[in-house]
Amino acid sequence: MKNITLSIGSGGKDMHAFINDYIVKKLGNDVLNKMDDASILVAKTGTLAFTTDSYVVSPIFFDGGDIGRLCVCGTVNDLSTSGAKPIALSLAFILEDGIALEDICKVIDSIAETCKEANVKIVTGDTKVVEKGKGDKIYINTAGIGFIEDGVALSSHNALLDDKVIVTGTIGDHEVAMMKARGLIGFDIKVKSDAAPLNLKIEQLLKKTKNIHVIKDPTRGGLASALFEIANNSNCEIRLIEEKITVSKDVKAVCDLLGLDPLYLANEGKYVILCPQDSAKAVLSVFGNEARIIGSIVSIGKPKLNIETFSGGIRRLGMLDSVQLPRIC
User: Fold this and answer.
1) Shared domain check, 171 and 118
2) What does pTM read for this prediction?
């Protein structure tokens, strides 16, 4: 078999052969191998966290990742924003008739590799096939569950006065990498997607301190949109310092050329973390030299997001009004 056909989504022998030969063979474990309609998971303690997301990125392969890596990273990172330890993911494919089996195998290999990196299992899933021209090669839906230890209370509603705002690395890398993959940039750049599972970093952080108030994933809409949501949910004023926010030279060059604001560019391997001053040291030690304190909460009672610019002025920031680049995840 060289290509995916409609029969693979039919529920018959071809579908079962595909699942067994190409999915279970590479992703199999003691839970998934039972192949029941629902998976039974046993945990002794903890509060359950659950999330789901769909991935329609185009192209499906790009510098620094692919749709397979993206679906695992995005789901475990969403779980970790609640302080949960991800333990299991579902995986659902919507495939287009005619897509090369070689491409599907590459995606599945990437999922397997990223699951191993994140120490998480695929425990259930589904596969459907649509007619040629009715999809775009492959769409993926994932759902994930994890458990939260006692004493962990993370939410975008939990920011407090004087909390420090930390970003765990350079911003805008993923969206610029997608521009590069689509041939929208007319000069050579070395930017790669930052897609990475961050759950083990959060586990490490919460072992050092549970006094963390907010963790947010600044994906679509970027850093500014994520912080604007926090400001609204926590009814607070956040003040950023532009010179503290790190942007790579290549991302800055693209933004200057195309008139884009890096504050609104998507990331797939960074967190925004809000915590008291005495916990900031733990965050910086876990995430390393790229992590920066970029601002703080200066008042409670009215939602605002402002930034002290390089020139010394104050600029008001809001939520991204429209999509700068569609289908980036």
Assistant:
1) no
2) 0.92
